[in-house]
Fold:
Amino acid sequence: MNSINKKLEYIKANNLYRKIKYLSESQDKYTTVDGMKVLLMSSNNYLGLSNNEDVKQSAIEAIQKYGLGSGGSRLTTGSYDLHRKLERKIAEFKNYEDALIFNTGYMANLGVISAICDENYYIFSDELNHASIVDGCRLSKGETIVYKHNNVKDLENKIKALNPSNRIIVSDSVFSMDGDICNFDKIYEISKRYNLLTILDDAHATGVIGKTGRGSSEYFKYKPDITIGTLSKAIGSEGGFVCASESIIDFLRNKARSFIFSTALSPIVISGAIKSLEIIDENIQLVEKLSNNISYACKRLNEIGFDIDSHSPIIPILIGDEEKAVKLSELLLENGIFIPAIRNPTVKKGCTILRLTLMSTHNYEDIDYVIDIINKYKLEI
Ligand SMILES: Cc1ncc(COP(=O)(O)O)c(C=O)c1O
Structure:
């Protein structure tokens, strides 16, 4: 206990202590945080679908038909026809032969990487990959080789240095904190040259990149062998997924422990996710609106002295010092804007950011307001 208290003291003394803030309204551009009405500028609900009327109606119909919980794991009693319908929809949306749903994106990364990569595998993993990829690598029996962020030269050198065997490259497609996009077309060419499998994590790409929001399979020239993703961000629901060939999906259905040993997702979130995907299919303007907001926010941030060129809704405003970033986040909150400071261990020490995220429901006035406030306080912190 003593050592736990000491660690907690260390966290507090280094401005790394985290406290949960509670929302008491839906995840819209305006919400209520700890009793205060705010402009939400930090949600992953990029297309505003989590509170969409048609999505909610679809969820209501599901609870009326199926009830609340799914009552079992997918391989026992928990598979509803809806689960399969969503898997087929995701596979079609992403242009793959088949798909498999997991309970979260985190569990998808854990399950897929640990099932595929046995002791005969080398895993090449980008140094800024999401924690769930890192944990999937740790759980696997393969050996992980970390390459420099988005650095294809370093990746190739590391691949060349090892004898050929079973090898896989895994990367976020849109990096979750920096919002930059992986250099996948180059990575894919390397993977073909040296005969490696490729996995991309489309958590922040689905509904976001590609002309119609399909993510990596639409945005890049080449398609990864395996795409992992989540339904919890632009899709506005919950759950993770993996897309691949029929045989890989069949293998994962039989081998991925986080798929096998956990109760299936509620039909409510499944039904909502199906509706969200249909809405994205039919409303390309949602994706376009988000993309316009991204360009506008970057232009405005450059005008006030931040060097930011994001092509995703994640706009990292680098503050560096933990205390200053927390202070700026508090000042923004006092002005009715919610953007938490993201600190170590999510980012490197001394690289604290305000992780501003955009939604298609924001407009240019919202963006102007936030940027003007940041500009006002950036020199005061
Ligand atoms: C890149 C990335 N992968 C996976 C996940 C995990 O997804 P989920 O929230 O569905 O567990 C996240 C975010 O939470 C993420 O940013």
About this structure: The first strand starts at residue 30 and ends at 33.
